[in-house]
């Protein structure tokens, strides 16, 4: 099959899942950066809709988000983001996934660092501090303390890196920085652990730059709006 | 000039890189890092890999860490010297990415948990939490049910061809099959088992296993 022609920005893609979900919001941020029109389709997780037979057809692990456009049905937020960057390469913010192999490698390295080192402790903290109370689940102080410690060590590495480089993968904002927005947003603005970011000079500077991008502000607005 | 791969050949993450380099015909040299004596956490190592982890590669002046980023890079860079492990169209590439993310999160998180509980903690003189072990195994069971369904319809995870999405599972599944009592998770699933026999039978993986001797 010959390489598909990247599509024009006319037909909205479909994203399934609530904007409050960190993984869903990662995809929304990317679509907004690329000026790609989308339709957000609600999935009622409180009622277990993500485990329903119909939903499992589009995401067999029963997780959000799922994504559909005219050519493909995809899941896993970071895979969806990479696809969106390639599919809409010529529009929106151009440098999101790099313009040459060396830059792309650096972006991939930091997307992996986000997924393997930043995400595990930060996701656990977001669950314990933000979602558990909403779901009336008892918080586990041990888990909170252990993961504050783990995340602190990770952010020490980021502090050093961001003293050498404006953004994680280099001098431009990329998918590597974007991947961090969802969990960091909750921690900085929804918990008493914002210090983890704000007390580190370079991390604080970086957080301020990436979180005030128009695309991210729109995502936060979507998270704060009542469902349609 | 040969690419330097820092890490012990016996550890899963370096193995992920080594098998890719062998598949893609990249000359490499392994620089041993002793995890037991904590070489990877020493001040001399941190400039190479600031999280104090293996592997990291050095290719002339170019340095890269995170095994899956390294795999993506060489699968693309050496595309003329090896099989196409990434897909061709945007859609094929996206499916490869999707299943690589599944390996990275749904699958590997459980493997990592099991390795920590059953190998790392005992080596540090700490005790295994068997309730956690059971939780990881139960989660793996559910994940592998999805794999069984997928592989009953598709020869490899991303489609008709072997890709980095399949490749990145090699070390983790090897762990499951090596004397921990979890082999049934693979062997009792017909499509998963046949996929495993196929991907682990590739010469590149056999060569990596030779390196461990």
From TrEMBL, chain A:
Keywords for the protein's UniProt record, in alphabetical order: Transferase
GO cellular component, one term: cytoplasm
Family annotation (CDD domains): GST_C_Phi, GST_N_Phi
An example molecular function term from Gene Ontology annotations: glutathione transferase activity
GST N-terminal domain boundaries: 11-92
Pfam families for the chain: GST_C, GST_N
Ranges where the GST C-terminal domain occurs: 100-228
InterPro entries xrefs: Glutathione-S-Trfase_C-like, Glutathione-S-Trfase_C_sf, Glutathione_S-Trfase, Glutathione_S-Trfase_N, GST_C, GST_Phi_C, Thioredoxin-like_sf
Annotated signal peptide: none
GO biological-process terms attached to the record: glutathione metabolic process; toxin catabolic process
Domain of life: Eukaryota
Enzyme Commission no: 2.5.1.18
Keyword Transferase on entry: yes
SUPFAM superfamilies for the chain: GST C-terminal domain-like, Thioredoxin-like
Catalysis: reaction(s): RX + glutathione = an S-substituted glutathione + a halide anion + H(+)
Similarity section: Belongs to the GST superfamily. Phi family.
Descriptive protein name: glutathione transferase
Lineage: Eukaryota, Viridiplantae, Streptophyta, Embryophyta, Tracheophyta
UniProtKB/TrEMBL annotation, chain B:
GO molecular function annotations of the record: glutathione binding; glutathione transferase activity
Pfam families (UniProt xref): GST_C (PF00043), GST_N (PF02798)
Any one Gene Ontology BP term: toxin catabolic process
Alphabetized SUPFAM superfamilies for the sequence: GST C-terminal domain-like, Thioredoxin-like
Signal peptide positions (record): none
InterPro entries assigned: Glutathione-S-Trfase_C-like, Glutathione-S-Trfase_C_sf, Glutathione_S-Trfase, Glutathione_S-Trfase_N, GST_C, GST_Phi_C, Thioredoxin-like_sf
Domain GST C-terminal residues, every copy: 89-213
Any single Gene Ontology cellular-component annotation: cytoplasm
Protein name per UniProt: glutathione transferase
Classification lineage: Eukaryota, Viridiplantae, Streptophyta, Embryophyta, Tracheophyta
